[in-house]
Specification:
This protein has about 140 residues and is mainly α. The protein is about 80% helix and about 0% strand. The two termini are about 35 Å apart.
Length: about 140
Amino acid sequence: MNPKIVFFILLILSATGFISPPIALCAGIIFGLSLLHPYAADAKALSKFLLQASIVALGFGMNLREVLKAGRSGFLYTAIGITFAMLAGLAIGKLLSVRGTTSYLISTGTAICGGSAIAAVGPVIHASEEEMAVSLGLFLF
């Protein structure tokens, strides 16, 4: 079967909600392992934008009243927790001789919210593709 046709069928099924996200993820993995990506060059350029746009869209789905209510009571605890996680992560990275940018990305992901934080911070600190891949790969395990 033509990889372009399979790609668009899976894309439409995933985007419309006819299949659940875990099933869509498994289908994507099977597609990636068994067929050549018909739009590899375009996907590389588009994936960065889509990931950043998805993170912003997640923020729009939050209830602002609830965020403000939770923020007032938990701001200090959150700030202390994030600060501790960042400092501990950077110290452990230095202790294990992990490159500075990679250590920073891993610490950010640990302190905030995993892969989405790494995806948001990586372009800001000009992380290389290798550093991003290593940092994101850590959160898959």
